[in-house]
Amino acid sequence: MTDLRADLAAVHERSRADLEALARIPSISSEPEHAADVVRALEAVRAHAVDAGAAGASIVDGGGHPALIAHWPAPAGRPTVLLYAHADVQPTGPEQEWTSPPFEPTERDGRLYGRGAADDKAGVMMHLAVLRAFQGRPPVGVVLFIEGEEEIGSPTLTRLLAGHKDALRSDVIVIADSANAAVDVPAFTTSLRGLVDLYVDVKLLDRPVHSGMFGGPVTDALTILCRLLATLHDEDGNVAVEGVRVGSSSAPDMPEAVYRADTTLVPSAQLVGCGSIVERLWDKPAVSVLGLDAPSTAQASNVLLPRARAKVSLRIAPGDEAQSALKALTRHLESKVEWGAEVTVTPGSAGDAFSLATTGSVYDLARRTFSEAYGNQAVESGIGGSIPFIAEFARTYPGATVLVTGVGDPASRWHGIDESLDLAMWQKACLAEALLLEGLAQG
Asked: Which of 262, 275, 280, 295 has the highest count of CB atoms within 10 angstroms of its CB?
């Protein structure tokens, strides 16, 4: 048995530098002008994989943003483990609100700040750091799968899996795209909500008209759209879309003060919805308005707007189906529009919710190795986010064990301003994964 701690320490500085270099690439998959940056990020990972001893490394696609598949063949009698992460990132939001530039990774108080530093380029470079620690000869077979469109719902993943089913076949799937309970408490994510989104367009007029000459008998498209969006919640803040699943949970609740501190709510803000906080986060749907197409206040003039558009996102509870939820949300918006306005709904992305079974020898081993690496017992938790990859892979490889591990923590602010990675925790995560692969080799 090798000294994995020493081997990981030997490659840490290089892996940290490569993480920072990867985080400098603005690989925003939702913005067409950054499509080349997604490719550039994957090409950088491909070069690292080849350098880490991959027998083969290819950039592939299913008609959308590409992905990387690299492999290290299994020694005789050893299992194959698929290591997943994604190299695309969310948009930055207002860059002026960041403490340091979002694509210039900056360390402060032991945390690395930057878009993608945690979600999910830390996962990408964790896998590579482990492969480097094994000097390119891991004790099990490894398939490295790095996706390029997770942040837009993995729209072409099904076609990609169908085209590369044999190349991605594995006995264990490790998905490094979740969060730990704390920087020193590892967590295995056991349930995830699904996600659907769509665009809703409201048309009331053929062209803008003077608000003084015509306003009164006629309103405007933006007002109608706002009233339509307001029907998505009931008076308590619960999702009011008929036909979506509402679940419950027996998991212990979290203190409201802890939750509020993590969300950065203003002091006067109230929590919405019914049930425990854990139920509302993990087991019930949540609907959000992500954006509006309408004039800015600086560009507004005294006219009645003829058209308005919104993007709406619905997180769906475990047990619900994405296409069913998308149809329910569409029916709701089409039926609730007021005053005879025309409404058009355009479907967006759709990813199923998922629940994981956590029994068996792989999970027993994972609990031991992760607890050893972090110095605390691993916990199991749900998560309100969505990883469409999981349900797709579970359908494609029903016999594989899926393990969802954390590279973030509650302070990481994934998708938000000042996203960050706790660097000491990242080293523990690397050790945990290395110990897991070593343990899987021993049977």
From this structure: 280
DSSP state of 442: H
DSSP 163-228: HTTTTT--SEEEEEEEE-SBTTB-EEEEEE-EEEEEEEEEE--SS-EEHHHHBTTB--HHHHHHHH
Percentage of residues of the chain with pLDDT beyond 70: 100
Say what the alpha-carbon torsion angle 44, 49, 55, 58 is, to the nearest 10 degrees: -30
Q: In a 10 Å sphere around its CB, with 0-12 CB exposed, 13-18 middle and 19+ buried, how is residue 277 labelled?
A: middle
Pairing assessment for the beta strands 401-408 and 172-179 based on DSSP bridges: parallel
pLDDT tens-digit series, residues 395-414: 888 889 999 999 999 899 99
Helix, strand, or coil (residue 154): coil
The DSSP H or E segment spanning 401 is strand 401-408
The position carrying tokens 């998959």 is: 29
Residue type, 422: D
pLDDT score of 248 more than 90: no
* 8-state DSSP, 74: P
Output the CATH code of domain 194-247+284-351.
3.30.70.360
Is 415 strand, coil or helix? coil
pLDDT digits (tens, 9 = 90+) for 347-405: 998 888 888 888 999 999 999 999 999 999 999 988 888 877 788 888 888 889 999 99
* 8 A C-beta contact, residue 370 and residue 187: no
All CATH 3.30.70.360 domain ranges of the chain, comma separated, are 194-247+284-351
90: nearest Cα among 43, 21, 153, 39: 153
What does the alpha-carbon distance between residue 160 and residue 155 come to, in Å, rounded to a whole number? Answer: 10
DSSP letters, 290-352, are EEEES--TTT--SEE-SEEEEEEEEEE-TT--HHHHHHHHHHHHHHH--TT-EEEEEEEEEE-
Gyration radius from the chain CA atoms: 23
Answer whether 142's CB lies under 8 Å from 42's CB. Answer: no
The CATH homologous superfamily to which domain 4-192+354-442 belongs is Zn peptidases (3.40.630.10)
How many CA atoms within 13 Å lie on the side-chain side of 428? 25
Candidates 418, 311, 434, 436; CA nearest to 94 is 418
Look at residues 188, 239, 116, 183 and name the one whose alpha carbon lies nearest to residue 375: 183
Where are the domain boundaries for CATH 3.40.630.10 in the chain? 4-192+354-442
The CA distance from 232 to 287, in Å, is 7
